[in-house]
């Protein structure tokens, strides 16, 4: 028999979880008690199960969210009748136990290539999580003012997502996410290095995109945007079939400083303008995985773990440089000190991890 939490402790947890006041605390506590009883009975009836430790907090969270979802479909004055329904009570408890057992203890997964405690990934994640926290203080989602901020925040978010996939045993999915991160990072680098002109042209094409997808409420603005699109496309000798490509990539025209004409795509356009064309083959391989080629189904997990980790490190170093150059000075002094202390301890270690991991990868590639 598992001991339920005290009512005082349970109350404190509900407060910490910001549970809506319309949910009856006494009813939630009854769910908590009965779920623990039910789980205890299950384990008595199945003594050979591999389950040893039980987390009552997680089990309670399943109960809480199960009830909160269905209670949200009812008006507040109808909740009492729902709580007095024995059949409903039993269904919530049963579903919570089933989900807790399956999702927390019985989930079938392939063994990870490396655990989440592997120093090259755990150190990188700690550092990136700190950057994410520092960036959270910057205002975002106002494109005309915060475009660079929005791009670095999304880059950091994608980096964390890819790391989580990598350490959870989803190596090809992590590599596929790196592809999206690489695209986002490339635009971030252009916006950062080319400054106000790049931001101005990117924002203009953002408005073109809104008009193209009928997301502009003002018809006059939408018509004016389409007139500009047609005029500019004519100047670049583009045809109507190129409209979507022009909207997505035409912001590069005024910024192009490379040999040859502007190519309206990522691989030969954005990637080149950002100076990241050395990742051409990696991007192509990741695209194959994204589009479910045989490489996705029959790939060697170890190989894609190593490739993804190295590329995540290299992306991280570039993003960290932009953070240091463009955002660090905007932080409070305490936050700057926190960042500089962390950097002084861990940045050189991250450099060493990258050198070790990329060295392993090169040796394997030479051996083929």
Give keywords.
mainly alpha; 368 residues; globular; 15 helices
Can you offer a commentary on this structure?
The protein is an all-alpha fold and 368 residues long. It folds into two domains: 7-104, no CATH class; 119-367, no CATH class. It has 15 helices and no strands. α2 crosses α5. The longest helix is centred in the middle third of the chain and has 42 residues, at 171-212. The model has no long low-confidence stretch (mean pLDDT 95).
How many domain modules? 2
Helix fraction?
Answer: over 70%
Q: Average pLDDT across residues?
A: 95
Tell me about the largest β-sheet.
none
**How many beta-strand runs?**
0
* Spatial separation of the terminal alpha carbons: 57 Å
Indicate the radius of gyration in whole angstroms. 26 Å
Shape: globular
Helix-strand string: HHHHHHHHHHHHHHH
Query: Total helix count?
Result: 15
Structural class estimated from helices and strands = mainly alpha
Task: List segments where confidence is low: pLDDT < 50 over at least 5 consecutive residues.
Answer: none
In what range is the share of β-strand residues? under 5%
Summarize the structure.
72% of the residues lie in helices and 0% in strands. By secondary structure, it is mainly alpha-helical.
Topology:
Layout: H1 7-16, H2 25-45, H3 56-71, H4 79-83, H5 86-104, H6 119-135, H7 143-167, H8 171-212, H9 219-235, H10 243-249, H11 266-273, H12 280-290, H13 294-298, H14 301-326, H15 333-367
Helix pairs in contact: 2-3, 2-5, 3-5, 6-7, 6-14, 6-15, 7-8, 7-14, 8-9, 8-10, 8-11, 8-12, 8-14, 14-15
């Amino acid at each position: 028999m598992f001991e339920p939490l005290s009512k005082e402790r349970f109350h404190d947890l509900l407060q910490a979880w910001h549970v809506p006041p319309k949910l009856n605390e006494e009813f939630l506590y009854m769910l908590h008690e009965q779920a623990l009883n039910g789980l205890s009975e299950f384990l008595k009836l199945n003594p050979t199960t591999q389950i040893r430790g039980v987390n009552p907090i997680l089990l309670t969270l399943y109960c809480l969210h199960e009830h909160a979802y269905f209670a949200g479909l009812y008006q507040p004055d109808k909740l009492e009748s729902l709580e007095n329904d024995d059949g409903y009570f039993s269904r919530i408890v049963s579903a919570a136990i089933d989900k807790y057992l399956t999702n927390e203890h019985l989930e079938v997964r392939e063994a990870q290539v490396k655990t989440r405690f592997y120093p090259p990934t755990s150190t990188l994640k700690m550092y990136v999580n700190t950057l994410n926290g520092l960036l959270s203080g910057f205002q975002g989602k106002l494109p005309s003012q915060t475009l660079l901020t929005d791009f670095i925040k999304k880059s950091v978010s994608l980096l964390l997502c890819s790391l989580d996939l990598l350490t959870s045993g989803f190596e090809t999915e992590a590599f596929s996410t790196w592809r999206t991160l690489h695209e986002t990072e490339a635009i971030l680098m252009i916006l950062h290095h080319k400054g106000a002109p790049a931001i101005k042209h990117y924002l203009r094409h953002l408005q073109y995109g809104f008009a193209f997808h009928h997301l502009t409420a003002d018809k006059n603005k939408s018509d004016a945007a389409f007139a500009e699109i047609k005029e500019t496309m004519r100047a670049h000798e583009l045809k109507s079939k190129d409209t979507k490509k022009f909207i997505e990539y035409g912001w590069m025209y005024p910024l192009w400083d490379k040999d040859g004409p502007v190519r309206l795509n990522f691989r030969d356009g954005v990637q080149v303008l950002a100076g990241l064309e050395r990742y051409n083959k990696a991007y192509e391989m990741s695209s194959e995985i994204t589009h479910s080629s045989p490489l996705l189904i029959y790939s060697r997990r170890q190989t894609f773990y190593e490739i993804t980790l190295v590329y995540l490190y290299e992306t991280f170093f570039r993003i960290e440089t932009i953070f240091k150059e463009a955002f660090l000075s905007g932080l409070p002094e305490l936050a700057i000190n926190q960042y500089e202390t962390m950097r002084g301890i861990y940045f050189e270690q991250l450099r060493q991890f990258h050198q070790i991991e990329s060295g392993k990868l090169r040796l394997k590639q030479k051996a083929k």
